[in-house]
Amino acid sequence: MDSVAARDFWNSRYDRQDYLFGETPNAFLAAQIARLQPGMTALAVADGEGRNGVWLAEQGLAVTTTDIAPRAVEKALALAERRGVTLDAQVADFETWGWPQGAFDVVVAVFIQFAPPPQRDRLFERMKAAVKPGGLVLLQGYRPEQIAYGTGGPGQVENLYTEALLRDAFADFDILHLKSHDSDVSEGAGHSGRSALIDLIARRP
């Protein structure tokens, strides 16, 4: 899917009154609250309607949130206003966006599995380069077993993550946590039900 098609696809998915993936943060992200401190800088990659970026801002972080869909960014800003926090919310195609280098204490990537393998490799490299030395990547995605559950995520098995794939992709980082698990997800209409998940916490040396 090219950039224009991707923008149009996600714009149409987000063009609804409610929030497709809900307004509360991803459970894996919320569980990392002890790793976060007010004043930290955070980047939420492909953050959709902003649920994760807004939650990070509520914890006192300075948050940049991005998405390819202008409608999603509008909704993220509306959610932030309702919650009384501010976001640097940017419409961004990750292939052409000017990624800041070594700028963030935390880079958050939750269910960003729109990217097929060659794109994914570039995306991971740009995410890693955006992290400050000592900073963290917090990532959650679906494993190939998710196809059978059918409760969210892409239908392309090659877009899904395995432990070996993530261990290899983040081999130059210190992997603090890497876990596969099947859990119940309740994140709006978009992600709902038993899901095959994988969590990664990696620190830039």
TrEMBL record:
Keywords annotated in UniProt: Methyltransferase, Transferase
GO molecular function: methyltransferase activity
SUPFAM superfamilies, alphabetized: S-adenosyl-L-methionine-dependent methyltransferases
Domain Methyltransferase span(s) in chain numbering: 43-135
Pfam families noted in UniProt: Methyltransf_25 (PF13649)
Biological process (GO), any one: methylation
CDD domains attached to this UniProt entry: AdoMet_MTases (cd02440)
Protein name: SAM-dependent methyltransferase
Organism of this sequence: Brevundimonas aurantiaca
Lineage: Bacteria, Pseudomonadati, Pseudomonadota, Alphaproteobacteria, Caulobacterales
